[in-house]
Amino acid sequence: MGSALKGAACGIIAAVAYGTNPLFSLNLYAQGMDVESVLFYRFAIAAIVLGTVMAATGHSLAAGRRELAVLVPAGAVFAMSSQTLYQSFLYMDAGVACSILFVYPILVAVIMAVFFRERASALTYGCIAMALTGIAMLYRGDGATTLSAAGMGLVGLSSLCYALYIVGVDHTPLRHIPSARMTFWVLASGAVMFFALTGFGGSLRPLAPTAACLGNVLGVALVPTIIPILFINIAIKNVGPTYSAIIGALEPVTALAIGAAVFGELITGRIVLGAAMILVAVTLIVSRPLLGRVAVRRRAHGRPNDKER
Predict the structure, then answer these.
(1) Nearest to 83 by CA among 50, 46, 34
(2) Is-contact 226 49, C-beta < 8 A?
């Protein structure tokens, strides 16, 4: 599998898995958990599971001082993105919060253009605009409700932190650290951070000994945590931060599908159109590097034929 196709596939998997985030977290809130406790269990269990798998398959967990010097801050930034997003769920609907979160492709593009002088094509900006327009059309409010300023601020900070994480993976020594090892240390750093935020366990909510609670904790640790972090790291290293960020716009589509299939939410024509716009934008971005290679091959094959004539 070529690096472009591999990166695109991993980006799509990460986005779809991340779209299941509210499904588990909101259930845990309903069961009496607070934000820091949910996130501690999420990061800690994910780190333990991933570390166990890595050790069992012979992958090294060891990280030197230089690696830890970038891994720990990366983990803190990623954890901050998660915390502010989860906090926003307390101020607004999770679906709206997750949709607003996806201003981060614009932030990634701005960061890359301002600090790294990346020249984005008209197609890239057009796809960003199309994806964001599609996300806006997924909103299902009647226009009478004013969104919480605190919730908006939290989602905005979450989006900025995630954009910084994506750019950091591609433009720091993190790029040269194996994806599984990097994922483990990002998770472990986040777990330590949230343990500290619970007063080093003083305010940590215990897990209820019920199948529902344990199932949701394992779900939030595995599906929207290990899978998206691991696969987004691979995607960033193969197709770059800008394309990885835009592919992530599939997350609201996943949330839409879960809402319809699990909670019986109504799908209107406006919502279908918005989802279609996101899918078209993502497809164009994913296809661009592949189509470029096809065009180069056609030109290369065309030259001998022209000479023969």
Answers:
(1) 34
(2) yes
pLDDT given at position 263? 64
Q: 303 pLDDT exceeds 60?
A: no
Question: pLDDT tens digit string along 155-209?
Answer: 999 999 999 998 998 888 998 899 889 989 999 999 999 999 999 999 999 999 9
Q: Which three-class secondary structure string do you get for the chain? A: CCHHHHHHHHHHHHHHHHCCHHHHHHHHHHCCCCHHHHHHHHHHHHHHHHHHHHHHCCCCCCCCHHHHHHHHHHHHHHHHHHHHHHHHCCCCCHHHHHHHHHHHHHHHHHHHHHHCCCCCCHHHHHHHHHHHHHHHHCCCCCCCCCCCHHHHHHHHHHHHHHHHHHHHHHHCHHHHCCHHHHHHHHHHHHHHHHHHHCCCCCCCCCCCCCHHHHHHHHHHHHHHHHHHHHHHHHHHHHHHHHHHHHHCCHHHHHHHHHHHHHHCCCCCHHHHHHHHHHHHHHHHHHHHHHHHHHHHHHHHHHHHHHHHC
Decide if 84 contacts 155 (C-beta within 8 A): yes
**Is the pLDDT confidence value at 144 over 70?**
no
Instruction: Show the tokens assigned to 85.
Output: 């997003």
Per-residue pLDDT, averaged over 225-241, amounts to: 85
Distance CA 96, CA 99 (A): 5
As a whole number, mean pLDDT of residues 92-117 equals: 81
When the pLDDT of each residue in the chain is averaged and rounded to a whole number, the result is 84
